Please model this.
Amino acid sequence: MKKNLFFNFFIFLGGIIFIIFIILPILKIFTNLDLLHIFSLFKDRELTSSILMTLYASLLATLFGIIGGIPLAYILANYNFPLKKLIEAFIDIPVVIPHTAAGIALLTVFGRNAFLGKIFSSAGIKFVNEFPGIVLAMLYVSVPFLINHAKEGFKKIDKELEAVSRTLGASKFTTFAKISLPLIKGDIISGSIMMWARGISEFGAIIILAYNPKVISTLIYDRFESFGLRSSAPSVAFLLLLIISIFLILRMITGRRK
Model:
């Protein structure tokens, strides 16, 4: 009995410490700010347009991630082939390397004088200090979250269900679209939300590849560097209120669908 009490106390204490660790910096942002002043930032056109652009760019990156990442996740979950482990390791690299390094790596491939950069530029798509560069940076650093969520979902599918579908005459594509995808809907939604959220928070790769136009992370950094904490803190508080509201709504929607 005493051992159970000690264990429960240890678990509870550890949980409380980390809850405080996570929540305290967020709450501290609001303690010295007037809430009315935060809401008045709706009139700050630079701030609101930056936030809207950030949300839109991350949404586009997530859509591109869904189009390319889910088929890749299916392949990795269902097929064994040479260098598979190496490919999985490369997919995880954007998560673990410093994102300024990711931005430099992207610049070597999609920069003005880089091979792919020139090809896209001839088609009218430029990445350096352009909106497509923001989307590209967000896509690169956040798509591993979606791929890994979807891959684990595909691994959990009972292969007999897919086999029955094939024996009943369904093609591989039909089985994939009508059996496999619906079964991992929750994993895809969770992975997409994680990818979208990671894109919103991206800074390092964006500041290297596309410092302008300014997304919210670069705008806050720019205001902090130029005017200090007093100027940047209200923008952070405004962003936090917006993001918390969005994610509460998303959690409620996804919770009802489960």
Summary: The chain has a mean pLDDT of 84. The chain has 13 helices and no strands.
